[in-house]
Write a structure and sequence with these properties.
mainly alpha, two-stranded antiparallel ribbon, 24 helices, globular
Length: about 475
């Protein structure tokens, strides 16, 4: 960590406690509307509170601003990805790609096994692409739509999708966090992945069993309106399997390690092209044009990419799904990330993050306590710094020597980092991952939190394995 400030633990915890109290009050008052701006302001107030403590410790304003700037720089890629995910969602709706996914998905998937199918589909896509974000932005959006037409709870659908996506994200050798965790601990990538199976597979099995049981009790009444839904989609869109060429191209590009931004831009442009090829009549109807001149076409495409698109059908359920906010729809999420980075940057500059991590490290007197301290440190960084990469890097640096000192192989640290840093980031509303998933899937974190079973059970599984000393690998 950059800061060398020495701040007492009680003082370091004050801004965190203050923030949690204010956010709790805020969510109670505003409910699901808290992400519309009030949570963002609370994060800034939390930053101001931390800054006041910093000033009392002689930390300069310039130092704090510099730290905030470094934090903001680290999320530049995430912000750009969010903007292009909004753009991609717009063109994929207008082109009929998302409606086609829903159209065919309704016919294939059934309420009794829908949740389990969500987990498996998301896991396979995430393993292939190495990206949970790409998974949510493509099949995740479609699965949310399909599930809603069946009358299923959106929080449960999002929980199943996120559980599968993060399972694949952890186990894929293409994943950035998987490579980062291995690098921070000094372990071999494939040894790290192999060692993760000890905790990861029990966690995903528990998740699948839960959703399998839940699916068994789902109402079958929802599927009686299938024909009505299919007719409403086909009346508005030209539905053809050829539309799946675009998502297939995007997934293939990501799997081939094409930078996500490039893949999203190409996916957005291809979506726009397919809209003019397959949905010509819809474009004319939506905009009250008689012909599609180059000027009209240009206006339609740019409006769809940058702002909201609303497509009305004869079915009210579909009308709720066929809405896209475009790039503009992602601004609340981006605003949240920026404010979270302000709080995290100031906490870093005043030495609060270092103080909390050091205290956890000093507390660890045995192997189990060492694992517990690592988990607690990852969670703390995820909550305070609001970034999953920092939740791997900071504890990785702090605990590497401690694990070696106790004769523990680096795979123990890398696995614990992933089990508690990578997967829990999506459970925190103001974390970049929580904000992203909530914004893309259109489901608040508080609604999917309890159903993202894989994500919250993973740190518990890693602690259980440590407690019973099951396959704790030693340095040979």
């Amino acid at each position: 960590m950059k800061s060398e400030k020495n701040i007492p633990l009680k003082l370091a915890l004050l801004p965190l406690i203050f923030l949690v109290i204010l956010l709790t009050i805020n969510v109670y008052v505003f409910g699901n509307d808290a992400l519309g701006g009030s949570n963002q302001f609370i994060l800034l107030i939390g930053g101001v509170f931390a800054a006041i403590i910093g000033f009392s410790l002689k930390v300069s304003y310039k130092e704090m601003v510099s730290s905030v700037g470094e934090n903001l720089k680290s999320v530049t890629g995430a912000i750009l990805i969010l903007l292009f995910v909004g753009a991609l969602a717009g063109t994929w709706l207008l082109s009929g790609i998302i409606p086609a996914m829903i159209y065919y998905g309704i016919q294939i998937l059934h309420p009794s096994y829908f949740f389990v199918a969500c987990i498996i589909i998301a896991a396979l896509i995430s393993i292939a692409t190495g990206s949970s974000w790409t998974t949510s932005a493509t099949v995740g959006i479609a699965l949310i739509g399909i599930g809603k037409t069946m009358g299923l709870d959106s929080g449960m659908i999002a929980g199943a999708v996120i559980s599968g996506a993060y399972f694949g994200y952890k186990m894929s050798p293409l994943s950035d966090t998987t490579n980062l965790a291995a690098a921070m601990s000094g372990s071999n990538l494939f040894n790290h992945i192999k060692y993760m199976t000890i905790t990861t597979f029990p966690s995903i099995v528990i998740t699948i069993l839960f959703f399998g049981i839940v699916g068994f009790f789902q109402s079958y009444a929802a599927i009686t309106q299938t024909d009505t839904l299919l007719n409403s989609i086909s009346e508005k869109f030209s539905v053809t399997p050829l539309l799946f060429i675009v998502p297939a191209v995007v997934i293939f590009m990501i799997a081939k390690k094409t930078p996500p931004l490039v893949a999203l831009i190409i996916g957005t442009l291809l979506g726009g092209l397919f809209a003019f090829i397959f949905q010509n009549e819809l474009l004319l109807t939506l905009n009250n044009y008689e012909i599609l001149s180059w000027k009209n076409s240009y206006r339609i495409l740019l409006d769809n990419i940058t702002s909201s698109t609303v497509i009305e059908t004869s079915n009210p359920i579909l009308n709720e799904l066929f809405i896209s906010g475009g790039m503009k729809g992602m601004l609340d999420t981006i605003w949240l990330i920026i404010c979270a980075m302000v709080f995290g940057g100031i906490m870093d500059s005043i030495g609060a993050l270092k103080s909390i991590s050091n205290s956890l490290l000093l507390w660890a007197k045995n192997t189990f306590q060492l694992f517990l301290s690592t988990v607690a440190s990852c969670l703390t960084i995820n909550i305070t710094a609001s970034d999953q990469y920092l939740s791997l890097v900071v504890p990785g640096k702090m605990f590497e020597k401690a694990y070696k000192k106790r004769g523990l192989a680096p795979e123990n640290l890398s696995r614990t980092l992933e089990d508690s840093g990578t997967v829990t980031s999506v459970l925190i509303p103001w974390n970049t991952c929580g904000a992203y998933q909530s914004g893309v899937l259109g489901v608040p974190v508080v609604e999917y939190f309890i159903f993202a079973i894989f994500n919250w059970i993973s740190p518990l599984t890693t602690l259980f394995v440590a407690f019973v000393s099951y396959k704790i690998k030693k340095i040979v």
